[in-house]
Design a protein that fits this description.
six-stranded parallel sheet, 10 helices, alpha/beta, 342 residues, Leucine-rich repeat, LRR (right-handed beta-alpha superhelix)
């Protein structure tokens, strides 16, 4: 009888120790799950803050003026608010998962652990994106807040009234899809006004306009601001006329960058923009690299600096598919003009 009692006691002790070990294993799972969630939260919040700060830093660099910087700071503050709120949600999910895990055992605990981490990860996946979206929207928000607050950059000069009337006549623009600002002596400073008005057009749902900026006085700096607006509002400007503007070395490089980035633009006119072979090839190589799905016409006539046969052959090769027309000066050795409709 004593032997049987001893066996039963030993068996109970073993069961108790097993139960204790199981409970310890369960607590380890709880601790591991919560640690995983916290780590993911910390990493996501840090990444989101860096992305938001980077985007807003780019905004500050693109647009001048203390008011613009002030609005950019507001935008990054909103982005950080999104990150903070998401982190709080993650913390609640982790606590919820730990509380449930403490009351269950076995495979069910594992499933709940995975679910808790999964829920937290799902919350976190939108944190970085939300912060970046706030940053990207900041440019448009800045433009509209400048308008609504009556802080539109002042336009001065001979064509000031004409520029303002052309840009603000949204009904005509919607009907004609054409904005003619050619020959108005627009400088880099005045381009800021045009950029803000483009944001207003986008706010009114206007798309697919041709923007003719031929024969003005802006440089690559002004072009960069315009291209930034176009990148932030894809489909707003689908035709860009830059004839008779000196864009230097940087202008063609900027244009090549946005073409390579897939900016949805159908035609670009670069007549008499002081292109040479090197500048022309930068743009043509971007077209070739991007295999652009929308671009149909690149007009480079009137640039005597384009004179090498290699440039002509490159342009002809780009036209081989029949969708794209590239026009270069007819004086270039071996050059041809391909006329297609597609």
């Amino acid at each position: 009888m004593r032997i049987v009692t001893r066996i039963i006691a030993d068996t109970c002790l073993v069961c108790f120790l097993c139960a204790a070990n199981c409970q310890a294993g369960l607590l380890d799972k709880v601790s591991s799950a919560v640690s995983s969630v916290k780590a993911k939260a910390a990493n996501a919040v840090d990444s989101a803050k860096k992305k938001a700060a980077s985007v807003v830093g780019d905004i500050k660099a693109k647009l001048p003026g203390s008011k613009v910087k002030e609005l950019a700071e507001q935008a990054v503050g909103q982005a950080k608010g999104v990150v903070t709120d998401a982190a709080k949600v993650v913390g609640k999910e982790a606590q919820k998962g730990a509380a449930v895990l403490a009351s269950v055992a076995g495979e069910q605990a594992g499933r709940i652990a995975n679910a808790a981490v999964g829920q937290a990860a799902q919350v976190l996946s939108g944190v970085g994106g939300a912060a970046v979206d706030f940053g990207k929207a900041a440019l448009g928000a800045i433009g509209m807040q400048l308008l609504r607050g009556g802080r539109v950059p002042t336009i001065t000069g001979e064509h000031a009234a004409e520029i303002e009337q052309t840009c603000s006549d949204t009904e005509t623009i919607r009907r004609t899809r054409y904005v003619d600002l050619s020959g108005m002596a627009i400088t880099d400073e005045q381009v800021e006004y045009v950029a803000v008005m483009l944001y207003q057009m986008a706010e009114h749902g206007i798309t697919s306009i041709t923007l003719n900026l031929a024969s003005n006085d802006f440089t690559a700096a002004g072009l960069e601001m315009l291209l930034q607006v176009m990148l932030e509002n894809p489909g707003l400007v689908t035709g860009l006329g830059l004839a008779n503007n000196d864009l230097g070395d940087e202008g063609p490089a900027l244009l090549a960058a946005v073409i390579a980035d897939g900016l949805p633009i159908a035609f670009v006119v670069l007549t008499n923009t002081r292109l040479d072979d090197a500048r022309a090839r930068v743009i043509l190589e971007a077209v070739a690299t991007a295999n652009h799905p929308v671009l149909r016409h690149v007009i480079m006539t009137g640039n005597p600096g384009i004179r090498e046969r290699q440039t002509s052959e490159f342009a002809q090769n780009l036209q081989a598919g029949g969708r794209l027309v590239v026009r270069i000066p007819s004086s270039v050795a071996g050059s041809t003009v391909r006329r297609t409709t597609s």
